Amino acid sequence: MQRLCRQCGASLSPADASVCARCLGRARPRAETAEEDLGPLLHSALAPSGDVPGKIGRYVVLGELGRGAAGVVYRARDLMLRREVAIKTIGDATIAGAEALERFHTEASAAARLRHPGIVSVYETGEHEGRPFLVMELVEGESLESLLRKGGVAPRRLAGLVREVALALAHAHEHGIIHRDVKPENVLVDR
Q1: pLDDT band (50, 70, 90) for residue 103
Q2: Which pTM was predicted?
Q3: Which long-range contacts (C-beta less than 8 Å, at least 24 apart) are formed by 178-181?
Q4: CA–CA separation, 18 and 21 (whole Å)
Q5: In this structure, how many other beta carbons lie within 10 angstroms of the beta carbon of residue 59?
Q6: pLDDT at position 116, please?
Q7: pLDDT band at residue 101 using 50, 70 and 90 as cut-offs
Q8: How far apart are CA 129 and CA 124, in angstroms?
Q9: I want to staple 188 with a disulfide (CB 3.0 to 4.6 A). Which of 42, 49, 109, 139 is the partner?
Q10: DSSP per-residue codes, 45-74
Q11: For residue 102, which of 132, 124, 73 has the smallest C-alpha distance?
Q12: How far apart are CA 59 and CA 91, in angstroms?
């Protein structure tokens, strides 16, 4: 089966990950911020306003990305690896009891083993103030729901996105993982 570049749709070589060499060459590298250069950012994050935590483990929370029935997703900075990540905190009602918590960690561990360009990578799980969380790859973009709401998505592009989602779901299914909440709101389209 032929794989296509996520940026331009060109055929990928076996050595390419999810973007062709031409698109990869066009990408501008983003400078990494050293931990000691976080300065005011770190101090403001450690004294948050509202219900946004300042820090979750070794991660400095930079802001909220989204909120749903199962929990809240934050943009955060990994101080050890010096990269931005997404952290999904799981609500108390979602994880009730030791058995449910064990199931959460088992499912997260299975998802972390998936490697597919259409599936967000899970880096680790943990607990913060008694609530479980997932640390995931940060996807820069927007939800399919948001794109559809704006209108103007060409039918061919939409068909391509649906195809990518189907391939990603098929990969997960082949590895015994079923996504139980597939909907446009939960499909992220990267830039």
Answers
A1: confident
A2: 0.68
A3: 181/70
A4: 10
A5: 23
A6: 95
A7: confident
A8: 17
A9: 139
A10: HHS-STT--SEETTEEEEEEEEE-SSEEEE
A11: 132
A12: 19
6: left (phi over 0), alpha (psi -120 to 50) or beta: alpha
Q: Which two tokens stand for residue 124?
A: 């680790």
pLDDT of 39: 37
Tokens of 119: 């599936």
Which of helix, strand or coil describes residue 87?
A: strand
> Of 2, 5, 33, which Cα lies nearest the Cα of 21?
5
- What band does 67 get if pLDDT is binned at 50, 70 and 90? confident
Q: What is the C-alpha separation between 163 and 118, in angstroms, rounded?
A: 10
At 80, the pLDDT band (50, 70, 90 cuts) reads: very high
Cα–Cα distance measured from residue 37 to residue 39, given in angstroms and rounded to the nearest whole number: 5
Residue with tokens 């499912």: 107
